[in-house]
Amino acid sequence: xxxxxxxxxxxxxxxxxxxxxxxxxxxxxxxxxxxxxxxxxxxxxxxxxxxxxxxxxxxxxxxxxxxxxxxxxxxxxxxxxxxxxxxxxxxxxxxxxxxxxxxxxxxxxxxxxxxxxxxxxxxxxxxxxxxxxxxxxxxxxxxxxxxxxxxxxxxxxxxxxxxxxxxxx
Length: 169
What we know:
By secondary structure, the chain is α+β, with helices and mostly antiparallel strands. The protein is 22% helix and 46% strand. It contains three helices and ten strands; from the N terminus they run βββββββαβββαα. It has helices spanning 73-85, 138-147, 153-167, and strands at residues 2-5, 10-17, 23-30, 34-41, 44-52, 57-61, 64-66, 87-99, 108-119, 131-137. Strands 4, 5, 6, 7, 8, 9 and 10 form a seven-stranded mixed beta sheet that branches. Strands 1-2-3 form a three-stranded antiparallel beta sheet, with no helix packed on it. A hairpin with a 5-residue loop joins β2 and β3. The longest helix is centred in the last third of the chain and has 15 residues, at 153-167. The radius of gyration is 17 Å and the shape is globular. The chain starts with a strand and ends with a helix. The model has no long low-confidence stretch (mean pLDDT 94).
């Protein structure tokens, strides 16, 4: 049963069966899928410093954004990178996906590495966003995560996934 439907998400109450056969009910939030991008040139990483109204402060984050209806994750990643950083990627590499909080939502974040960056004005920033691109090095981002200067889960996840990919090379 639908409880709420808004522009960005919808909420439902639904029944389900546990693996042992018991019937349960849950509230499930459906925000739609999104993308997260780790743009870099060598060990220089391009993050954003973005105002986040729900917590009333700025956060350091990897660029990210919501997929439009029927949009391919790669296309979303290309668009969002330009909107949030003013940079286009000459190359994008998929790093898989993560579930944000599967205890109450089905939201997936598709992860992408972006390289060969070049300035672009193909897409404009969203009106409701206050964003400043910030360049950091790998040692700086490690320290920012360690000290709690970066507390955004998707940013920590994509950085870790990227580091794991690099260690396999």
